[in-house]
Specification:
- This protein has helices at 24-45, 55-60, 62-70, 93-111, 129-136, 157-160, 200-205, 207-224, 254-268, 277-289, 297-306, and strands at residues 5-12, 15-16, 21-22, 50-53, 74-77, 117-118, 140-141, 171-174, 177-181, 187-188, 193-194, 196-197, 228-232, 293-294.
- With 311 residues, the chain is an alpha/beta fold.
- Strands 1, 4, 5, 13 and 14 form a five-stranded parallel beta sheet that branches. The chain has a five-stranded mixed beta sheet with strand order 6-7-10-8-9. A two-stranded antiparallel ribbon has the order 2-3.
- A hairpin with a 4-residue loop joins strand 2 and strand 3.
- Helix 1 packs parallel to helix 3 (62-70) and helix 4 (93-111) packs across helix 5.
- The longest helix has 22 residues, at 24-45.
- The two termini are 13 Å apart.
- The relative contact order is 0.18.
Length: 311
């Protein structure tokens, strides 16, 4: 098959980017704006993507899951909740397994299909994750972002330093270390980065630098056949009401608050809502014009198992 592969992935949660907090009302905007806008755009290109849902947003608005599933997109888990205390780099193994099993059941009950892919909320993971995923019946993880360098602007930055030495190609992980190759059943599909992350947030913050990052990733793919994995969120494509100017503090110390909350928020509100759609369309145009094969995480896993994907 075509060795130029692109995975478009979408994280679905109740985060209000504009208001810098989780709120249930944001899920209403996802239902009426974010999800329809993304699904219509993907249908234009006739591509299938992977949607990672938190169990919370799925229970709050099950129609979101049904909308994506009805269009043939893969339904995947984004954990149970997107709160700081439910990050997978702080949860003990038993709790990780419980959260994974609960989210898996919620999503499977709604969509009627097996859920085997997972991405940790905020991409925060620790060494217990591979075992937890195996115990909970998952086959795929996409929480690592190899050689991504902006972790100081996000939470869980200490564990994310492991990204610096993680393999760039998709790899089966060690049972006791998600950041290294091993012989477990869990396939890691890294979120693409070339120093800068290849994600919707960065696409909106700096479209020019994002194009440069994409160009470098494309050159790498031509040399190594490495698939490109792009991450975005339906909540980046909503025009919601501004509830407050107060920036909620999540950081445990002043530096964390300054970088992870204040500065990050000021950057992340650029090009929100309908203004983000032409930017995403430009990314999809780039790959479509170069005959990339768009696949879901589940499809890539099947190709990997049969040897039809990258080595």
């Amino acid at each position: 098959m075509n060795r130029k592969i692109c995975l478009i992935t979408n994280d679905v949660e109740t985060t209000s980017i504009l208001n810098h907090k989780l709120r249930d009302k944001t899920a209403e905007y996802l239902l009426t704006q974010g999800m329809p806008r993304l699904l219509d755009l993907y249908e234009t290109y006739n591509i299938k993507t992977t949607f990672f849902f938190t169990g919370y947003v799925a229970k709050l608005q099950p129609a979101l899951v049904k909308m994506a599933s009805a269009k043939g997109h893969e339904i995947a888990s984004h954990g149970l909740r997107h709160t700081v205390d439910c990050a997978f780099d702080v949860l003990p193994l038993k709790t990780q397994i419980d959260h994974l099993q609960q989210s898996k059941k919620i999503l499977e009950d709604i969509c009627g299909n097996e859920v085997i892919s997972f991405r940790a909320p905020a991409a925060r993971a620790n060494y217990d994750l591979p075992l937890a995923l195996e115990e909970a019946g998952f086959s795929i993880d996409s929480s690592v972002s190899s050689q991504r360098l902006d972790m100081m602007f996000s939470f869980g930055s200490i564990k994310k330093l492991n990204w610096l030495i993680s393999p760039r190609q998709p790899y089966f992980v060690k049972i006791d270390n998600i950041f290294k190759k091993g012989s477990s059943k869990i396939l890691e599909i890294p979120i693409s980065a070339f120093g800068f992350p290849y994600i919707g947030t960065f696409m909106r913050i700096s479209p020019t630098l994002n194009r440069l990052t994409r160009r470098f990733l494309y050159m790498e793919t031509k040399i190594t056949n490495r698939p490109i994995t792009f991450l975005t969120h339906p909540n980046e494509f909503i025009d919601e009401d501004k509830e407050t100017d107060v920036i909620e503090r999540r950081g445990t110390n002043f530096i964390s608050y300054l970088l992870g909350d204040v500065l990050r928020h000021k950057l992340k509100v650029r090009n929100l809502g309908a203004k983000a759609l032409p930017l995403l369309k430009r990314e999809l145009d780039f790959f479509a014009e170069r005959d990339f094969n768009f696949v879901t995480c589940k499809k890539y896993y099947a190709l990997k198992k049969t040897g039809d994907a990258t080595s």
